[in-house]
């Protein structure tokens, strides 16, 4: 008989909490001499389920053929997809199903062209898809069958009502929690993977327990620290895995169960366990600290330009101090991505709600400097080009928020392009990983609307097609352009033939390097007027005021 974990055909009701049972089983499995390698992925016996669901498990385990432990992840996005793929790869004894309400996303995950670009991801998915990794739109079925449910859905910034523009919109999280409560017929560990406001677990717990039918849910916070572009590397070798849970025996056992999943490949010393609120807040704090470093160096870049200092030299000297360290000190046109701004706004809102306006104000400055840096860049471009870019072709190299990803959420390129379009520029955009429809959509969308499932994103009636064209390569984008703006640090931009680009551009030809990727001296030798963020200005630029 094949015994399905959590399925209705199980013969005995749960006698012990699932967390406790999962722990027992994982421990037992760890001590077991490779018990699960006996058969292929679908048919091998797992000792896991019997301990969860059977009061007489020691007898039953000998007799019954069972399925492996099952993880279901709600949300097949940038976090859910890669995270679960790596769990599946590292834990061949665990069945992992990633579910999503978006049919195109799941179709893409099941195809040769994955819905997100991430170095190394294709390889990982290919190794386990169809074995112990599955992608499905049958959300309820797989949640119902799972022992551990990760929730990795969107948590956008609210655009209306209380806390609009700051607070996290937990609509998707809440609907996922209600669905889990509705379809569950067995005990489950529910893991917050999404970044959520501190104390969300309390609300989720209320939804789950309010609807439960004698079922025990243990809520864990397991925020994800991967960075896009290096997600697979980060997941293979995380600086730390953070697991927060209730300080009750049940909570501690749930923590242990999840810890044992990660222990398949993460050294124990790198798995940190805390209470729920510390784990939830740590994620917001980590993103706030990271973004703060970027805003700090960007603030310095403005001062460098004003004084003749070189921000790269300053950052190097500062970063040599072992208390500060060298990472995350690259000046740029600004940070982007789906997390930093959203999480800081959320942090600001939480501070305000907790009567801490001074703390809120402090973190708000990180966003303000980021916005300042983007508008400073636009002003520099316009001011340098005789105070107008009206009807001038400006090439935009790079649209993704960083290299090695096709993700454009909150990319600084959006604000820079909108700023230039506001001055009536004609933009010609090239990014090696971003498709034309994505660029057109991003430039037509209102702030924060991007962070919703694709099919629920509101479309703006404004079309930007007349002002924006998208090129297949950097040479096409720059042909006949008056200026080039480099907005993503793609490696291929470092090795472009700038002589060829210069020859095909209008003169004077400008390069505005928002990522400090080009060799400004070489470009000046060719004849370009070059602006590099935070570097000493060349004579042309010095004479042009660039007031933000
Ligand atoms: N992207 C990152 O680098 C990163 C890093 C750490 C944490 N996070 C956090 O992780 C969470 C997810 O981020 P992401 O970048 O993966 O987002 P995403 O938009 O790429 O993916 C979220 C997915 O959830 C799906 N979804 C929404 N509601 C659903 C529901 N009720 N049932 C099933 N599917 C549903 C959407 O269709 C979408 O595919 C967010 O809270 C984010 O802040 C993101």
Automatic annotation (TrEMBL):
InterPro entries: 6-PGluconate_DH-like_C_sf, NAD(P)-bd_dom_sf, UDP-Glc/GDP-Man, UDP-Glc/GDP-Man_DH_C, UDP-Glc/GDP-Man_DH_C_sf, UDP-Glc/GDP-Man_DH_dimer, UDP-Glc/GDP-Man_DH_N, UDPglc_DH_euk. Its EC number is 1.1.1.22. NAD(+) binds at residues 75-80, 100, 105, 153-157, 194-195, 228, 339-342, 409. Residues 395-520 form the UDP-glucose/GDP-mannose dehydrogenase C-terminal domain. GO terms for biological process: glycosaminoglycan biosynthetic process; UDP-glucuronate biosynthetic process. GO terms for molecular function: NAD binding; UDP-glucose 6-dehydrogenase activity. Keywords: NAD, Oxidoreductase. The active site is at residue 339. GO terms for cellular component: nucleus. It comes from the Eukaryota. Pathway: Nucleotide-sugar biosynthesis; UDP-alpha-D-glucuronate biosynthesis; UDP-alpha-D-glucuronate from UDP-alpha-D-glucose: step 1/1. Belongs to the UDP-glucose/GDP-mannose dehydrogenase family. This is UDP-glucose 6-dehydrogenase. It comes from Solanum verrucosum.
């Amino acid at each position: 008989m094949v015994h399905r974990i959590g399925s209705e055909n199980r013969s005995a009701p749960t006698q012990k909490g699932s967390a406790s049972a999962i722990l027992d089983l994982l421990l037992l499995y760890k001590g077991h001499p490779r018990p699960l390698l006996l058969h292929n992925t679908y048919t091998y016996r797992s000792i896991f389920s019997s301990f969860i669901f059977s009061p007489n498990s020691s007898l039953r385990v000998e007799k019954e053929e069972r399925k492996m432990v099952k993880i279901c992840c709600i949300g097949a996005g940038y976090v859910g997809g890669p995270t679960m793929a790596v769990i599946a790869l590292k834990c061949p004894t665990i069945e992992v199903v990633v579910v999503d309400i978006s049919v195109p996303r799941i179709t893409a995950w099941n195809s040769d062209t994955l819905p997100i670009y991430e170095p190394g991801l294709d390889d990982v998915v290919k190794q386990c898809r169809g074995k112990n990794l599955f992608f499905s739109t049958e959300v309820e079925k797989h949640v119902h069958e799972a022992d551990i449910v990760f929730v990795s859905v969107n948590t956008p910034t609210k655009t209306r009502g209380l806390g609009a523009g700051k607070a996290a919109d937990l609509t998707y999280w809440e609907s996922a929690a209600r669905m889990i409560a509705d379809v569950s017929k067995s005990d489950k560990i529910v893991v917050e993977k999404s970044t959520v406001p501190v104390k969300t677990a309390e609300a989720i717990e209320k939804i789950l327990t309010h609807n439960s039918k004698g079922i025990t849910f243990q809520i864990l916070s397991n925020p994800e620290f991967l960075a896009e572009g290096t997600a697979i590397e980060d997941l293979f070798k995380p600086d730390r895995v953070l697991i927060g849970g209730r300080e009750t025996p049940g909570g501690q056992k749930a923590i242990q169960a999840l810890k044992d999943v990660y222990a398949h490949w993460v050294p124990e010393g790198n798995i940190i366990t805390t209470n729920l609120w510390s784990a939830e807040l740590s994620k917001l704090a980590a993103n706030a600290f990271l973004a703060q470093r970027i805003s700090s160096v960007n603030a310095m870049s403005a001062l460098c330009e004003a004084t003749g200092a070189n921000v790269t030299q300053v950052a190097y000297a500062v970063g040599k101090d072992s208390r500060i360290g060298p990472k995350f000190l690259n000046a740029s046109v600004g940070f982007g991505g789906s997390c930093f701004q959203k999480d800081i706004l959320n942090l600001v809102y939480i501070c305000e709600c907790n009567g801490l306006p001074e703390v809120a104000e402090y973190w708000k400055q990180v966003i303000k400097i980021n916005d300042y840096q983007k508008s400073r860049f636009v002003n520099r471009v316009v001011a340098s080009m005789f105070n107008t870019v009206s009807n001038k072709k400006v090439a935009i190299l790079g649209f993704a928020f960083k290299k090695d990803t096709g993700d454009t959420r909150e990319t600084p390129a959006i604000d820079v392009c909108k700023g230039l379009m506001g001055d009536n520029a004609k933009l010609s955009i090239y990014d090696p990983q971003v498709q034309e429809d994505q660029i057109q959509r991003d430039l037509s969308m209102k702030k924060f609307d991007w962070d919703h499932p694709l099919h629920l994103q509101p479309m703006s009636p404004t079309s930007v097609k007349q002002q924006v064209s998208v090129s297949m390569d950097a040479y096409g984008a720059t042909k006949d352009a008056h200026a080039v703006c480099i907005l993503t640090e793609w490696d291929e931009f470092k090795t472009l033939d700038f002589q060829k680009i210069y020859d095909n551009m209008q003169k004077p030809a400008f390069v505005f390097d928002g990522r400090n990727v080009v060799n400004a001296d070489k470009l000046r030798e060719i004849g370009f007027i070059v602006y590099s963020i935070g570097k000493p200005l060349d004579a042309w630029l010095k004479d042009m005021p660039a007031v933000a």
